[in-house]
Design a protein that fits this description.
single chain; 342 residues; alpha/beta; 14 strands; 31% helix; 23% strand; disordered N terminus
């Protein structure tokens, strides 16, 4: 499929980090260690020094295991939570510090599709009310007929019959609800859509329909996507570039074709080896061993060292730096840097 790509950077994440405090009061910080009481404040380090760029017209997929920080990145970009460190720039403007009314113009340009279609729609509102609300909010000059026409047109564009508008969310299937959630995001004509695992709660038979719907909307409306997923087969179909996260850090960042044809980071190779292939007579699965470190106490060096077969003393002592490779991919791995991986 031909991509309408541009060199214009629409979104940039710059050294983005997010920690969540586990201890919220003085008494919570008190711990009993080695026979005495000490004060120790613990935090979950969900996102660690992430730097990414999304160009206008592309679909950047962020992948990784559950708990790697994918959804936290999505919520940081959407402004639902604030970063602990770093900056987020949208179309050249820093947005991570915006509050209240300053966010209103951004909300119209940027919309989010959530993972669970059963929880993202208000059960007390009809579909008509749910879709009219953002249109009225962002277009106060619209007449009642303008609002209804807009809603009806968007519903048709996502394959939802406008005659269903008087129904409530519980009357629809999961796939239909997700179509309605996509319609709600499109009612304000955004240019950037954050999709946080939008198909993981749907039946496999429905997933392809929703994905194709999102691709059609991308082509017709010139949308740019930040697509969060753990399904690499979806990435191959949907994404133009891929960022692989492990314990909140980017370990590899490349265009989709390069990543699938020539993965470099040991973690990326392990992920791709787990994707079922019909042509594989003898699948060469890479089985990761060792314990997954906790995001509360991250290891000093590379976060993947405890599960990596290429790990050496440098990996335990020094955090790898992301380095651009000859094919344009960016990899944070000492073994790749030193040429220890074939």
């Amino acid at each position: 499929m031909k991509q309408d790509m541009s060199n214009h950077v629409l979104l940039e994440l710059e050294n983005l980090s997010k920690s969540f405090d586990l201890d919220h009061g003085f008494l919570d910080t008190l711990k009993f260690k080695k026979g005495r009481i000490v004060s120790e404040k613990r935090s979950v380090h969900a996102v660690n020094n992430v730097s990414l760029k999304i160009h206008k017209g592309e679909a950047l997929c962020v992948v990784g295991e559950s708990g790697c920080g994918k959804s936290t990145v999505a919520r940081l970009v959407a402004g639902l939570i604030s970063p602990t460190k770093g900056a987020i720039h949208y179309d050249g403007q820093r947005i991570d510090a915006l509050k209240g009314k300053d966010l209103l113009p951004l909300r119209k340009r940027m919309q989010m599709i959530f993972q669970n279609p059963y929880a993202s729609l208000n059960p007390r509102m009809t579909i008509q009310q749910a879709l009219e609300e953002p249109v009225r909010h962002h277009n106060p000059s619209f007449s009642r007929d303008d609002v209804q026409d807009k809603v009806a047109n968007v519903m048709r564009s996502v394959g939802v019959d406008p005659s269903w508008a008087a129904r409530y969310p519980h009357e629809f299937s999961g796939g239909q609800r997700q179509r309605i959630a996509i319609a709600r995001a499109l009612t304000v004509d955004p240019e950037f859509v954050i999709a946080d695992e939008p198909i993981s709660a749907l039946d496999v038979s429905i997933q392809a329909q929703v994905l194709n719907l999102m691709l059609e909307a991308k082509e017709e409306r010139g949308l740019t996507y930040l697509f969060i997923t753990h399904d690499l087969s979806v990435v191959q179909h949907f994404g133009t570039r891929v960022a692989v996260l492990y314990l909140g850090s980017v370990c590899e960042y490349a265009d989709t074709a390069t990543l699938f044809s020539n993965p470099k980071h040991p973690y990326t190779r392990a992920l791709l080896s787990a994707v079922p292939q019909l042509s594989d007579d003898k699948p060469n699965h890479i089985r990761l061993k060792g314990e997954i470190p906790t995001p509360i106490n991250l290891p000093k060096g590379c976060p993947f060292q405890s599960r990596c077969s290429y790990s050496n003393p440098r990996c335990s002592a020094e955090l790898p730096v992301a380095i651009e490779q000859a094919d344009g991919s960016v990899v944070a791995c000492h073994a790749v840097e030193e040429g220890r991986i074939d």
